[in-house]
Design goal:
Layout (H helix, E strand, L loop, with lengths): L4 H14 L3 H11 L3 E4 L1 H4 L3 H10 L4 H21 L6 H16 L5 H9 L10 H10 L3 E6 L3 H11 L9 E2 L10 H4 L1 H6 L6 E5 L2 H10 L3 E4 L15 E3 L4 H12 L1
Parallel strand pairs: 1-2, 1-4, 2-3, 4-5, 5-6
Helix pairs in contact: 4-5, 4-7, 5-6
Length: about 260
């Protein structure tokens, strides 16, 4: 009977673990087990209504405005972190919007600005979020945001979605005055959960965030809802999933193996 390569490796691994003394076997299991998940805001909340609102205000130009706006957001967060001139994400987002509109020579009024900014306070959860949060609770997995969003933004979105009960206190970059992917921001996970780094999974929406989390040392899941290409930065996430439910599969496989 022929044994496939994957089956052979699995048999070897199982034999090696079984051969360990019981105390060492339990230590391996404890080390590999994930007890908490830190999530980016957009893993939970759907940002597409922002672009839809921009298109309603500026027909035919909303997609371009949103794209430039998003680029400026990233640039401003990174520049402010590197230059040690922090502003919270709400302020950075408004600055980026005004810059994008100016670059496109769009006559953005104060009311239009407020309408677009307001979308960041009431983003709908992705359809798979409530079921997945319930699944995490059944597995006794703790969960908190580790996000560039300000605490006020996270509170307002959770309140609108009626999902507050699932989350521990927010690990917002306002706590440390540095945006992701700064290691200072990712350190909030071990500090906030009071767990070892390997006991915390990180669920990222953006590939850049998954890279940063993996560089820092998290077991990292990339929730690639937009079917984007991975970054060419010499590292890979531990798992990639097209939706939030894939986190449950990752945890089941990882924790059962442990």
């Amino acid at each position: 009977m022929r044994i496939k390569r994957r089956e052979f490796i699995s048999l070897l691994s199982a034999t090696a673990i079984t051969a360990l003394p019981l105390s060492e076997h339990l230590a391996v299991a404890k080390t590999n087990r994930i007890k908490a998940i830190a999530v980016d805001a957009f893993v939970v909340f759907d940002p597409r209504p922002i672009e839809q609102c921009a298109e309603e205000l500026f027909p035919g130009r909303g997609t371009e405005l949103t794209s430039i706006w998003r680029t400026r957001q990233f640039e401003y967060t990174w520049l402010r972190t590197i230059g040690n001139h922090y502003k919270d994400f709400w302020q950075v987002t408004e600055d980026a919007l005004n810059n994008a509109a100016s670059e496109m020579r769009l006559p953005l009024t104060k009311a239009e600005c407020q309408r677009l900014m307001g979308k960041y306070e009431t983003l709908p959860p992705w359809p798979d979020v409530p079921e997945t949060l319930s699944g995490l609770r059944r597995r006794n997995i703790r969960i908190a945001f580790l996000s560039n969003f300000s605490a006020a933004m996270l509170h307002s979105n959770l309140a609108a979605a009626k999902l507050e009960e699932y989350f521990e206190p927010h690990l917002t970059t306002d706590r440390v005055g540095a945006f992701k992917p700064s290691p200072v921001a990712y350190q909030m996970g071990p500090d906030g959960f009071a767990l070892e780094l390997h006991e915390i999974g990180f669920a990222a929406f953006g590939s850049w965030d998954a890279v940063g989390a993996k560089w820092f040392g998290y077991p990292t899941i990339w929730v690639n809802r937009s079917n984007r290409h991975w970054e060419n930065l010499d590292i890979q996430p531990d798992a990639t999933t097209p939706n939030f439910r894939g986190i449950l599969d990752f945890l089941d496989e990882r924790n059962c193996a442990a």
